[in-house]
DNA sequence: GACTAAATATGACGGTGTCAAGATTGATTA
DNA sequence: TAATCAATCTTGACACCGTCATATTTAGTC
C-alpha cells in the first residue's frame, strides 16, 4: 500500500522531474515545436499553469532539459577519454565519432542544447551554465593533452583553447549539418568523421 | 508624377519584394522571434492576411529571405576565390575568415539560412534549394582545387566532397558557436579563424 | 486543531498563424 | 466603351500559445 499514484491527487508529488522527463519524451517524439507547456501539462495530467510553480518560464524548463543533455555529453567524453584500452589516436577518433553520433541520436535535444533559444541574451539559467561550462572546459583539457602529445597538425604557437574551439567547431558544425540534412547524408557520418580525424592528425 | 506611393492604394503594387525587404530589416533588428507575419503586415501597412497572396506560408516567406542570403554568400565566395592578387593559401584563409565574418555580421540571417526551421522535413522551398545547392557545390569545387594544389593536410585517399564537408562543418560550427555566444567570444574571431587555417594547412 | 506556505486550478489577456468569405481593383475581352 | 474576371486586399473567426492574477486545495508545522 505504498505506491498508489493512481487516484487523482491534488498534489502530484514529484511534478518537477515528471515534467522534465515527459518534456524530454515529447522533444524526442515531435521536436521542439511540438513541445508546448499546455500539451505537456495535459499529458502529465495537470493544469496548464501548474508547471509555473516549478519553472519560472518555458525557457527555464528548456534549460532544465538541456542541462541533463550536457551532463550526458560530459560523462560520455569522460568515459571515452579515460578508457584503458585504446591509444590516444584512437581516443581522439572516438571523441569525434561519439560526439557527432550523440547529436545524431538525439537531434532535438542537441538542437536545444546549442540553439539560440536557450543561450541568447541572458536566457540561460545559472544551473544550465553550471552544467555546460565544465563540459566545455573538459574539451579544452582533452585538446591540451592531444596537443602535448604532438597529435594535432599545427605550426606556430599552440593554444589549447583555440585548438579546442576549432575542433569543437568542426564536430558541432558536422553535427548540425547532419541534423538539418544540409548537403550531408546521415548514411555517411562515419566516413565524414574519419575524414575529419585524418585532416586534423599530423602526418 | 511617377513615384507617388503616398496615397493609400488598395493594390500595393510590389508587395512581395516589399515584404521580403522589410522582413529582412525586422530580422536584423529583433531576431527571428520578433518577426511575426502580423507585425510585418502592420509595418508594411497592409492587412494581416495580405502576405498570403504572395507567400503560401510564413515558412515560404522565411525561405525567401534565406534565398537571398545564399545568393549573397555564393557571390562572396566567388569574388574571393576568383580574386587576382592573393595566393592560393591567402585565398583559403580568406574563405575561412569571410565565411565566419558573414555569419557574424548577419547572425539572424545566418541562423535562418542554416536553421532547422527552414530545412527540416520538406519545409524548404524549391526556390530555396535552387539558390542553396549551387552555393554548396561551389564550396566543393573550391576545396577540390585546394586539394589538388596539395594545400590541405591529409593522408590517404582524397575526396573533395568529404573534405568540403569537414571544412564547411568547421566554419559553420565556429560561426554558430560565435553567434550563440557559447564559449567563444566575438572579439577573438580572427584569432580562431587563423588557428583553424593553420590546423588545416599542410606543414 | 489552527495556521501557514506550497501546490494546484480557473479565468482572462494579448499574441500568434491561417482559413473562409467578402470587397476592391486593374487588366482583358467582347 | 462596357462587361467580365482574376488578382489582390480586407474583415471575421478559430485554435493555438505563454503567462498573469486570483481562488482553491492540500501538506506540514507549531
Attribute tags:
mainly alpha; Arc Repressor Mutant, subunit A; Tetracycline Repressor, domain 2; 2 domains; 9 helices; 66% helix
What does it look like?
2 copies of one chain form a homodimer. In chain A, α4 (88-105) runs parallel beside α8 (160-180). Chain A is mainly alpha-helical. The first copy, chain A, has 9 helices and no strands. Chain A folds into 2 domains: 1-54, Arc Repressor Mutant, subunit A, CATH 1.10.10; 58-200, Tetracycline Repressor, domain 2 (Orthogonal Bundle). Chain A is elongated. The N and C termini of chain A lie far apart (67 Å). The interface between A and B is large, with 47 and 48 residues. The first copy, chain A, binds a DNA duplex (30 and 30 nucleotides) through residues 9-12, 15, 36-38, 46-50, 52-54, 57-58.
Briefly say what this structure is.
The structure is a homodimer of 203-residue chains. The first copy, chain A, is an all-alpha fold and 203 residues long. Chain A has helices at 15-30, 37-44, 58-81, 88-105, 107-114, 116-119, 126-148, 160-180, 189-200.
Secondary-structure map:
The structure is a homodimer of 203-residue chains.
Chain A: H1 15-30, H2 37-44, H3 58-81, H4 88-105, H5 107-114, H6 116-119, H7 126-148, H8 160-180, H9 189-200
Helix pairs in contact in A: 1-2, 3-4, 3-5, 3-7, 4-5, 4-8, 4-9, 7-8, 8-9
Chain A binds a DNA duplex (30 and 30 nucleotides) through loops.
Which range best describes the helical content of chain A: under 10%, 10-25%, 25-40%, 40-55%, 55-70% or over 70%?
55-70%
Distance between the termini of chain A: 67 Å
Number of helices of chain A: 9
What is the CA-based Rg of chain A, rounded?
Answer: 20 Å
Poorly predicted runs of 5 or more residues of chain A: 1-7
CATH superfamily of the largest domain in chain A: Tetracycline Repressor, domain 2
Largest interface: A-B, 47 and 48 residues
Q: Tell me what the CATH architecture of the largest domain in chain A is.
A: Orthogonal Bundle
Order of helices and strands of chain A: HHHHHHHHH
CATH topology assignment of the largest domain in chain A = Tetracycline Repressor, domain 2
- Average of the residue pLDDT scores of chain A: 92
